[in-house]
Amino acid sequence: MNSSLINWFLLSLLLFSISSVSGFLVKPITTVVIHNDIGAGSFLTFHCKSKNDDLGVHVLTYGYTYTIKFRPLFMTGTLYFCGFEWDGTVHRFDIYDEDRDDPICTHCEWKIKPTGPCMQNPRNSKFDICYGWKP
């Protein structure tokens, strides 16, 4: 083996060891909570997935929640996108977009409303970070 290959191998081993022990290069577990806030008596059907993970179809009655836990991938923009359906209409939204959400939260709570999803603001605990539905 030549010395540059050995050096590369040792550096890779060192970085892996550091990341495993100290959390360096490993992102914290992120939690996304989805609340059905469509309206009393409503059923919210949704299907969320990422590039690597299909979470399947779920149904929430009004006032109930669904929780997603994952570890964002190192050096990639983790994205979970969902289709939300009620009253026969489908609405789309990226429920977790690392570029948008990572600076704000690792525990991200969303109320799904007819007008669009609203994220809980970590500064005041209100659901006042609201977005419209994607076209």
TrEMBL record:
Q: Pfam families this protein is in?
A: Self-incomp_S1
Organism superkingdom = Eukaryota
Q: Which GO terms describe its biological process?
A: rejection of self pollen
- According to the UniProt entry, where is the signal peptide? 1-23
A Gene Ontology cellular-component term: extracellular region
UniProt keyword annotation of ATP-binding present? no
Keywords in alphabetical order, please.
Secreted, Self-incompatibility, Signal
The chain's coiled-coil residues are: none
Name the InterPro entries for this protein: Self-incomp_S1
In which compartments does the protein localize?
A: Secreted
Keyword Signal in annotation: yes
Q: What is its main location?
A: secreted
Q: Which family does it belong to?
A: Belongs to the plant self-incompatibility (S1) protein family.
Name-wise, this protein is S-protein homolog
Organism from which the protein derives: Hibiscus syriacus (Rose of Sharon)
